[in-house]
User: Which sequence fits this backbone?
């Protein structure tokens, strides 16, 4: 029987700023919707408003109706008026000031019902904005809650339940079938399938065995695992994702910054225009003061920049949080805007367009030697070598069940190949120059593979060639597809690589790359990125995130792929793809373009509606009800709902 103990109260963690499970500073725990103060206040204010309207229009008790309207202001307008007061003390005018002026002005000219309606509807509009912000962050809130607060740690021959925040690096914790992984670590015992979709967006479970990494927030589907902690709770991949998204939502795009500046000038200008609307017709043109005073109030409400102010931020927040849920970390709204304007993508080759690992691609046998026989001889010789090519051949033999033979009189020929005795005969494996010395003619297949950019190992005995094994860095399955998809989006694609021109050219032709640059050192890649930027304006660089760090930093937008656990990649890149899946790039481009479309739609709608309603207000064709209900609250709702569509963009 397991010995399970609890070390102190498991729910007693007070470090809310660093613990990934307790980060209430980022996603504050909220009570159920029906219990929220705003909903209660809104419901009470709504009852007061409806009751006041019924009494006002159905009975002669006007004074009771006015009291109820004042109660609406007291309940729904308390925070609005307090904010307006603080703004005035700071000698700054904001939308709360506009609404306060409009409400008191309506009461002043005997339209208490409209003054109460202005405050109530503006209160509802603010509630909708809060709901939009909550909904946009919903996916990240769910992600954060995935990490368990407690974990069973192996101690003193048993298991002790501890809060994740108290677990130290190198301690061992256990994960049973159906449990979530609580901390980042390395498997030391067991084998299982782990669902990593919350972190990487990849829906297919990943097989994990001894020596492989697991991450907090992922789900153990079947086997029993013992895991050595490699990161404390505040440093897990999950925690870093949350912190990155929090920081990203605070980084504004150029459009957001412009609208912020515009709103600061816009609000006092509107108040000035409203005063002019009242003063000029009344005192200079002899108009009825109450008529123009009312129109000035309507103009104040219509011109409230609420919908315009949220038009861009709500779209950006929706996009950033939606992307995080699909395993794409965007480190700021500016990169969404920048990527939308980018028409050139530069890709690193090794590890990005290819798997970054040499694999056997072809085996050809000569003089009645079978493929299996050639592989057996080659793998037997290569099993004595530590060269990457040797490992690839040996692994291929093991996977295909080919038996290795006993080697005698083994010798490594430096820089050329290997020599060894098998079953009483001498065999060689190596590069073509070794066999030039042995006066053995190289077969045509060797030249064909070299022309294709593959690395070839020539196998021969003392008299003749018996086979060729070709190895290559295998192209990722989706490389050709993503290049094709980007071309459909009118994006030019380039490849940067340190490989030779023959290899680079062969790969570029195979997957459809428009242009390639070969034999580049890391600093050369930076120079190429700079030249491309001068030529095309904006360049996005996609790399594996470590050796490509200088180029990622130099590009307009640096995109690091397959970065789970890679600190350098996440720190350097502007956008990080958490899984080795190139299809996320197409999703990213579609999301960025859709986001900027939504931003344009929101800004255009806000400007057109506000402009139209300004004209209608000056001509007296609308009242305060319509100004707030449609021109402010209704428009804000449309902007919010339009932005929330971004959460439905599919990867």
Assistant:
């Amino acid at each position: 029987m397991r010995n399970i103990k609890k070390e102190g109260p498991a729910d007693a963690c007070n470090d809310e700023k660093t613990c990934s499970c307790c980060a209430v500073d980022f996603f504050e725990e909220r009570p159920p919707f029906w219990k929220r103060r705003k909903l209660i206040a809104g419901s009470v204010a709504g009852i007061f408003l409806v009751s006041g309207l019924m009494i006002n229009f159905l009975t002669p008790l006007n004074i009771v109706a006015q009291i109820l309207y004042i109660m609406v202001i007291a309940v729904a307008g308390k925070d609005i008026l307090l904010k307006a007061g603080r703004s005035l003390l700071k000698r700054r005018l904001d939308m709360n000031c506009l609404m306060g002026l409009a409400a008191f002005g309506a009461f002043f000219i005997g339209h208490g019902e409209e003054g109460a309606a202005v405050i109530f509807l503006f209160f509802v509009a603010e509630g909708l904005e809060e709901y939009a912000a909550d909904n946009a962050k919903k996916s990240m809130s769910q992600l954060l809650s995935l990490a368990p607060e407690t974990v069973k740690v192996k101690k003193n021959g048993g298991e002790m339940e501890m809060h994740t925040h108290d677990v130290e690096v190198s301690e061992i914790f256990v994960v049973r079938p159906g449990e979530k992984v609580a901390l980042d670590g390395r498997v030391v015992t067991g084998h299982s399938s782990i669902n990593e979709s919350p972190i990487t967006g990849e829906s297919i479970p990943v097989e994990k065995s001894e020596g492989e990494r697991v991450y907090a927030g992922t789900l153990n589907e079947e086997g029993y695992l013992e895991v050595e902690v490699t990161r404390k709770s505040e440093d897990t991949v999950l925690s870093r994702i949350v912190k990155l998204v929090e920081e990203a939502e605070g980084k504004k795009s150029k459009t957001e910054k412009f609208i912020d500046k515009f709103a600061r000038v816009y609000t006092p200008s509107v108040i000035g225009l409203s005063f002019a609307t009242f003063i000029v017709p009344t005192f200079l043109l002899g108009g009825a003061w109450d008529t123009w005073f009312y129109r000035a109030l309507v103009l104040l409400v219509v011109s409230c920049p609420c919908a315009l102010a949220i038009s861009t931020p709500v779209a950006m927040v929706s996009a950033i949080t939606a992307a995080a849920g699909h395993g794409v970390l965007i480190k700021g709204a500016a990169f969404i805007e920048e990527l939308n304007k980018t028409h050139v993508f530069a890709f690193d080759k090794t590890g990005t367009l290819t798997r970054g690992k040499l694999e056997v691609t072809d085996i050809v046998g000569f003089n009645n030697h079978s493929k299996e026989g050639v592989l057996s001889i080659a793998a037997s010789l290569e099993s004595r070598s530590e060269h990457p090519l040797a490992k690839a051949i040996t692994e291929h033999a093991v996977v295909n069940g080919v038996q290795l033979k006993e080697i005698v009189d083994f010798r490594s020929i430096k820089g050329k190949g290997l020599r060894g005795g098998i079953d009483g005969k001498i065999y060689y494996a190596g590069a073509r120059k070794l066999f030039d010395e042995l006066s053995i003619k190289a077969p045509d297949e060797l030249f064909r593979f070299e022309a294709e950019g593959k690395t070839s190992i020539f196998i021969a005995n003392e008299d003749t060639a018996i086979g060729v094994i070709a190895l290559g860095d295998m192209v990722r399955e989706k490389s050709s597809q993503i290049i094709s998809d980007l071309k459909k989006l009118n994006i030019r694609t380039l490849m940067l690589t340190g490989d030779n021109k023959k290899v680079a050219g062969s790969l570029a032709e195979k997957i459809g790359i428009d242009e390639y640059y070969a034999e580049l050192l890391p600093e050369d890649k930076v120079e190429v990125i700079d030249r491309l930027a001068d030529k095309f304006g904006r360049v996005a660089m996609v790399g594996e995130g470590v050796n490509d760090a200088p180029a990622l930093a130099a590009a307009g937008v640096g995109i690091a792929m397959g970065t789970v656990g890679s600190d350098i990649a996440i720190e350097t890149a502007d956008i990080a793809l958490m899984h080795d899946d190139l299809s996320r790039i197409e999703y990213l481009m579609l999301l960025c373009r859709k986001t900027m479309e939504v931003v344009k739609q929101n800004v255009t709608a806000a400007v057109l509606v506000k402009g139209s309603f300004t004209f209608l207000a000056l001509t007296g064709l609308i009242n305060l009800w319509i100004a707030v209900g449609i021109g402010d609250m209704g428009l804000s709702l449309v902007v919010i709902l339009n932005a929330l569509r971004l959460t439905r963009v599919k990867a």
